[in-house]
Amino acid sequence: MxxxxxxxxxxxLKKQEIEGKDNELIVKLELCTQSIHRWLQYCxxxxxxLEEAVKEPNLRMxxxxxxxxxxxxxxxxxxxxxxIAAFLNSLHALLDSFPYLLNLFIPVRxxxxxxxxxxxxxxxxxxxxxAFYDELIGLLMDSTFHKVKGYVNTIKHKHLxxxxxxxxxxxxxxxxxxxxxxxxxxDIKFRLESVTDQHVMSFIEECHDQLIPKLFNLCDSxxxxxxxxLGNDL
Length: 234
Fold this sequence. Notes:
By secondary structure, the protein is mostly helical.
């Protein structure tokens, strides 16, 4: 994964803006950006493990109730199930941290710990008119993002989602998520959608190769906006 969160740029721009007046804010911003960076590393770690675990020879061993190597005590199924759950949990945390980061960097809520700071139209609309607003809405409306949320909320609050080994690939048997759409008034609404027989690695790859870069492109746009406000050429 080539994209990374440039923590130093976030911090340097904010320090330039406030000119050392609020060290507590800088501490919060540093902790938040470091956490997002770490969540990204967790995603990458679990993604690499998954690429190995779902290779066809390993999946065939799983169907034979076997271990990958002599002496192992963890079945192949546990390896890929744990890494799938960990990747998507880490990604969900990464994505859900962004509104908090955004409000620290460009505040629209006075209390940075407000429960209203989240991926919700009421909060996102506070940035209407900003250069990066369309990208914010684009991420809020992203179906893959909401599939991640649906998966994580199901395994956290209800039950693990069954995974079927098809010998050469894995499939999620079934789960639901709230799919966003715009009604006739252009308001964002959600309808419950079912996901069945979803190819696991196709979904994970979409998250890894498209959704994460989409978030970091948004981060770049937010920093470019702040830089232009400060007269910087980023």
